[in-house]
Amino acid sequence: MSDRNDDLKIARILQEAHVIAVVGASTNWKRPSFFVLKYLLEQGYDVIPVNPKEAGNSILGQTVVASLTDIHRPVDMVDVFRRSEECPEIAKDAVAIGAKFLWLQQKVISNEAREIAEAGGLEVVMDICPKIEHSRLNGLLGVHGFDSRVLTSRRRKVMPPKPAPRDAGLSHSKHIETLSIHAGTAPDPVSGARVTPIYQNTSFVFDDAEHASGLFNLQLPGNIYGRLSNPTTAALEQRIAALEGGVGSTCCSSGHAAQMIALLPLMEPGRKIVASTRLYGGTITQFSKTFERFGWSAIFVDTDDKVAVEKAVSDPDVRLVFAESLANPGGVVSDIAMLAEIAHDGGVPLVIDSTMATPALCRPIDHGADIVVHSTTKFLSGHGNAMGGAVVDSGLFDWAKGRGFPALAEPEPAYHGITFSETFGPLAYTNYNHAVGLRDLGPTMAPMNAFLTLTGMETLALRMRAHVEHAMQVAGFLNQHAKVLEVSYAGLPGSRWHDMAGKYMPLGPGSVFTFNIDGGFEEGCRLVANCNLFSHLANIGDTRSLILHPASTTHRQLSDEQRTKAGIADNMLRVSIGLEHPEDLMNDLQAALAAI
Ligand code: PLP
After folding, report:
1. pLDDT tens digits for 266-287?
2. pLDDT for position 168
3. Ligand 1 contact, 277 CB (< 6 A)
4. Which residues is 476 bridged to in the sheet?
5. From the CA of 24, how far away is ligand 1's center (Å)?
6. CB of 433 sitting under 6 A from ligand 1
7. Model confidence over 315-357: pLDDT tens digits?
8. Which of 227, 385, 497, 580 is the most core-located residue (most Cβ within 10 A)?
9. Are 352 and 379 in contact (CB under 8 A)?
10. Which domains are seen in the chain, by residue range?
11. 356 in contact with ligand 1, CB cutoff 6 A
12. ∠ CA 504-508-513 to the nearest 5 degrees?
């Protein structure tokens, strides 16, 4: 079992260990052991490479010894890059040389070695990587956002010369109110500024050629060029990952850009997406028209129909299942756990667009989703002033074991043949999204938008509670109105999705819903024109209340069949209920309905 979740133990070991023997250290700079060795040296550790085939040679200036017992000075930690079955013998040597810690790398698992080492007085961690854990716990601003879950008001040192995982300041919070304000945003290490500054930069200075090569080879975390990463955006990435319970995230220029970046590592020409019929209209167009030109295709299914989803996933070309936690529009709630089970049985990940729910109402990863995408344009930023998107990875999907994900599980030619899943473990997908997705496709979030989204997110929990409360009142009012035939809001008792909403979003199913009026296309257009307080525009998730007639706007590009499948009728209106007083909202709708 991986020791990945015991942050305090890991942080203490990384702080107490000074001399580290790396067993299985390679002279080949593309091997993960070389990456780890380089990183540990960079962080100020004293590293001794151990490898019988290279004995006497040197790796990064450190002389290689043949075995642990050839080291004639104190060793604190033994880090092992060998096959699991070789570990018991290595554990015996680690005990013999008086090491304090035995650390088995990712996928190196040996309970026998653990028993031997523990009986000899060593502490053991297995199946994780010290490079990943050290950078994660330090919250280094890397090529990806880390889920440091570290909350602190103290000023950070700039690049600590010694390993200093901030275990003393580690205070975890399960509370979204706290995480929304603090996750990812310790005081600025350079200026002490309490609010994360806008790093309005295109590029970042290298210490020297060695540092530059470490960054370009992805051996060291850090910023190179703004298309790949930026410190303000990295803070937002950490915050979103922390809120969703993921290991990392990648922010993009829009929600649609995030969907493209999310799918790039999973898809190849000829591969297919199993997608819900009830997706946001723009996503249906993106999947069925534009992605088709990449050679990707979508099989649209009713994701409530278990048998239909199973049948679709059984197509060997399928590489992912895609649904919305709360569908836009219509207040439809997906059975995330059921979809996750079907996807995982088929060896593919479940990708959930959770734009309408936000982590304040639902955390898809808790229910089995592997990847979560957001249009941060909506409720996350929350004020209608910043386009953006995010891709969050749970870090739990095993890319090497799945149905076939060569981008992640086979050597990447653009990075000298490194294999992302081998080199970066749980951060493989997030690192790929930055190092390849953003680098080559370029839909990067602007630092200013990251700043606006960070600020907006500070009030996420408060806002979402108010959005839901106001939506309940307005939906109840419309439900009683003589000119309204139907209200589709999962918050209303009697709605088809009410129980599912109770299961997945107990605080309430957001504030976007649809209603059908007594009339048709013309009346729908007229109602919108009659509103004064509601703004007529194609967005959701603003502090302002918004109204839209999907048949004449967002869904007009769909075929009649697609529109019917997506549940869009000519007499249907969509509203996104904002934070104005509900009485004013109901008065506006009352007047507009009276005039149609
Ligand atoms: N997903 C959902 C559920 C949306 O509502 C939208 C936009 O309305 C998107 C994705 C696309 O996001 P963006 O407009 O930020 O590209």
Report:
1. 999 999 999 999 998 889 999 9
2. 28
3. no
4. none
5. 47
6. no
7. 999 999 999 999 977 679 999 999 999 999 999 999 999 999 9
8. 497
9. no
10. 4-136 (3.40.50.720), 139-156+175-456 (3.40.640.10), 460-594 (3.90.1150.10)
11. yes
12. 105
